[in-house]
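Troubleshooting: if your tokenizer reports a length mismatch, compare your output against this known-good record of 216 residues.
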Amino acid sequence: MAVFGWSRAELVAPAPTLLLLDKDGVFLAEVGTEDGGEAGYWALPDPPERVVAATLAAEDRRIAWHPGVDPIAIGRAVKQNVLHQRRVSGASTLAMQVARMQAPGRRTYLRKGQEAIAALAITSRYGHEDVLRHYLRIAPYGNRCRGVAYAARRYFDKPVEDLTWAEAAFLAARPQAPGRMNPLVPDGRIAAEARARRILDILRDDGTIDAAEHAR
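Known-good structure output:
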């Protein structure tokens, strides 16, 4: 993807992970990328409502109101970071994160500007729904696992369509810091669960789920 090329901005996904099954369809192994990168990418044409709601609550609550860059989030992040003299808040929309995942680089202000331009181009070309779908296809969920469909199988052994609200929130919490929120280690699990609870609080407060669903 050309970072500065408005007309050439594209959504690019890796080839799906090859799964090896026996003659009865029982899982034997998986084959990742040739360069030893992350495995686990599966296509996801229609993300479930719970996964969408939890992801937007975690990463991009105003997605319907911005063109790929959220000026409100940027203003909040600048204010908080200046106040604390360190980075305590980010402002990356889903489109900006997609741009970063497709063209990784050092986290500098120049790089953030490039990602913002790419995010505007991607959103203009594809629209918010396709950007969201693409994010859910390629987002990192830790342990060499990309994409929420694969993450649902890896962590909960169920189809992504069958995730509960709590499970959807738990997965939505992870791409922000998949290493720090690794549920396979005690501290990582605690961090992931804490962020998942905050996501569930947001979903309750905005009326997406009711008090009973929140408690459950």
